[in-house]
Amino acid sequence: MNDTLVAMLREEMVQMIAAHAMYARDQIGKERFDERVMLAMAKVPRHDFVPIELAPFAYADQPLPIGYDKTISQPFIVALMTDLLEIGPDHRVLEVGTGLGYHTAVLAELAAEVYSVEIVEELAEQARNRLAPLGHDNITLRIGNGEHGWAEHAPFDRIVVCAASELIPHGMISQLKPGGRMVVPTGLPDAQSLTVVERTTDGRTSAQEVLPVRFALLETAN
What is the pLDDT of residues 91-127, one digit of tens each? Predict the structure, then answer.
């Protein structure tokens, strides 16, 4: 795709995200996403993070298959999860489920450090290659099971889990800083909700379900 077409499609995607946010305002509690989030969504080249045969559909507001029974999430959901994290420029963020690296790139536009774990080795290696041209120096990737987070680099200001867990993954809560926030899909395969978990300064936690979603299940160790 040429640069002019890409720019047009990306702008259309951002406008669709904004319209979707307005439509879902009663559920998400706001009419628009943070401007920093929208600028990141407008900047990251989504077509570089999908299989080449799906590049013409990269800016449609829909999930797309990336192989290994995984998908790249719908742009609105990426924007929503990112907005719910409320990422500050000095934050350290853990992402569980790198996929091909699209959400990782969006996070890297907003945070000081991004640590991302992907269990499928082939996807992780592709993510490295796809992220490299963007030149981010604040991303650290690891191949492995992210079920228990990444203790070596904890605590984190923010954690985002890009796969569903029936229950809130409490092992990751312990890796949140006091005042930290985690966004994770929770529930049964046919009844999932995007959930925001907050850890207070005294170590207590609260959880709020935001929106029905459908994610692949978080892979766990045997």
Answer: 999 999 999 999 999 999 999 999 999 999 999 999 9
Question: Cα angle at 210 between 173 and 168, to 5 degrees?
Answer: 25
Give the chain's end-to-end CA distance (angstroms, integer). 43
The bridge status of strand 176-188 relative to strand 191-199 is: antiparallel
Catalytic residue among 73, 116, 174, 206: 73
Domains of the chain, by residue range, sit at 3-213
Between 148 and 77, residue with greater pLDDT: 77
58-68 pLDDT tens trace: 999 999 999 99
DSSP per residue, 78-102: HHHHHHHHT--TT-EEEEE--TTSH
Q: Please tell me the chain's helix, strand, coil percentages from 3-state DSSP, rounded to the nearest 5.
A: 40, 30, 35
Whether residue 73 lies in the annotated active site: yes
Q: Domain 3-213 in CATH: superfamily? A: Vaccinia Virus protein VP39 (3.40.50.150)
> 55: which strand partners?
none
